Structures
1.
Amino acid sequence: MTRNRIALIGSAVALTMLAVCPSAFAVTHGGEGLFGPTNDAQITNTMFLVMGFFIVVIVVFSMIQSRIEHRKHARIDAAKRRASSEEWKGGW
């Protein structure tokens, strides 16, 4: 794609968004969101769930990284053992 075509497509998308987006602000629901009327307890519980989610994600990703690092070190150690072994030295 040429730069002119990319610029034309980008400006067309931008103009379309500018034409469509103002209608989204015209709709009013009396301050209610998608979930309906909420109170402080619902918001607090939701935020606790969000914090718990991120803690679980961090722990799971850390465990995955630990396993990958363990495998990497095991592979490096095995290569060192193979290099020092008499069985793998020499030719025929």
Note: The radius of gyration is 29 Å.
2.
Amino acid sequence: MDWLLPLLLVCASMAAMEWVAWASHKYVMHRFGWAWHRDHHEPHDGVLEKNDRFALVGAAMSISMFAVGSPWVMGEQAWWPGTWIGLGILGYGIVYTLIHDGLVHQRWFRYVPRGGYLKRLVQAHRLHHATIGKEGGVSFGFVWAPDPVRLKAELKRQREEGVAVLREAPEA
């Protein structure tokens, strides 16, 4: 049973990171962090984006937690949960890279899901990219995908209220 609490910490940290990612995407990337995030919403030819800097922020969070949990770094002041939280943040970063960059944006591999949750995830993210600029928008998470029907209705409402400018009729 010595593994149960660390496993719960890793899983809870991974789940919490979806909320952190959602909040930072909505309230940082689409606001004062737009200078880094903008190129993610615009066509470009480069392999890397300024937006990839946010991955470095996530890596720094994970490394910091590993350091806080490490007796080699912190000595007797080490906080043992830090290691497991750092592992959860790292795990989320791997899942994010595979799902968001790999599956949704096809930066690392080509696969188009024909159904199920992966298709819903791709649809939700495409609807997120249906707006022009940083205003408005839907589906700010990276692993959790709301129902595309609800997202389309929200985009329609935002367009009618003048909050969001759509690229074209949203597809999904």
Note: The helical segments are 4-29, 34-37, 53-68, 71-74, 81-104, 116-128, 148-160.
3.
Amino acid sequence: MTEAKQPVFSMTGFARIAGRVSETLGFSLSLKSVNHRFLDLHMRLPQGTEGIEIQLRRILKEKLRRGHVEVTLNLERSQKAEAGYDHALVAAYVEAFRAAAAEHRLTAEPDLNSVFRLPGVLMAESRNSEEELRGLEEAVLRESDALVAALETMRAQEGSVLANELRAGMSRLRELVDEAALLREKVQQAYFERLSQRMKAMLDGGFDQDRILQEAALIAERSDVEEEVTRLRTHIDHFTGLLDQGGEVGKKLDFLLQEMNREANTLLSKTSGVAGNGTRITEAGLGMKSEIEKAREQVQNLE
């Protein structure tokens, strides 16, 4: 049975879910990812939810491979919860105020407006209770798999678009390489004739003509671009094969593009200064470099 190929994932994506812990407490959890060399998790969670953060880090490290991922958890309390206050804490503040007043023989009474501004008095300012934290953790982790799946779906869709663009770029690159291959023999012959004429002119018949032709042929052979054309074709085949294979291919594709760029540079250096078809090969080589650079920019966003 043929193994199903894996999708190619972009590192760009977004997903969000919302849920409720109770009638008075809801939450929203979002994931936003962009490209990065490694997996870089940036957590934005409310104070007191360290346990949830640890669990989310573990889940995301199991599911994702690369990308800068921002994880944001927001809590949403109903109006009822916001209107509540910590009765025990208010009583303690009032008792402390009256004790201090009696100690210093003052007749002042505590001001409730001032008391409600003290840390932790209003429910909206208080820390989450242990029961709420347990419920929040259960609810968030229950939804986490669906959230990551939604992010991966978007990343796969973006990756499919990028893969198609890269295949089109490789097709254009192959056309330019094939053009250079067709022109190669004519360029080599022109280069040989040019060298022969220059060497004859410089030596003015003072040396063996056959030896001159041999030296010219050797130099012309060194300027041949056949090896560069062959390597470029091999790299293009490998590149498209990796795209078809899918999975975590971004770094491998980037390495192949670096190799392609090196071959294109060598091809250009060998054909510089040769008139006629040499100029056309130079133009093809510049086109190769342009396609390679476009592909490198796109590959940076692949997982």
Note: The longest strand covers residues 67-77.
4.
Amino acid sequence: MTQTRAFAPFRLAAAGLLLAAVPLLVSAQSFSTLEERMSAAQFREAGLDKLSAEELAKLNAWLQQNVGGTAAAAAPAASASRIGFSEDPTDGSGSVRSRLLGEFRGWEGKTVFALENGQVWQQVGNDKWAGVKLENPAITIEAAAFGSWRLKVEGYNTMTKVKRVR
């Protein structure tokens, strides 16, 4: 028993060091290069395609050292990589504002939402919302935690998780 108590301060110090190292490890693991963050068009428009492989590697290394994982959250292109599309589905604000096409009667799990802007989104969960009947309602789709998206119908306080399918 006394031997265990003697190691208690060491255990606390080791646990503290481990907790202090976690943000550094997460930042290093969550870093993505410019090529991964940007669509091909954005990469070209920024003139980054003119850099040599060595110059691009140095730029990515500088970003990782000076910006780290926080740049992924700030970069609009990061939201595109979360959904697997080469172009950002938003207007750069981190959200999509459009209208649903046709009559809207809520959702009931795996509901597909066709938007006026040509995008198609599908409900991810099985939550239900009934008792509403609207024509071409305005909607907002916002980025949420862990790369997910939430759809909200204007004028209502109900949301559902969605993913972009087209």
Note: The helical segments are 2-6, 8-30, 34-37, 40-45, 53-66, 70-74, 76-83.
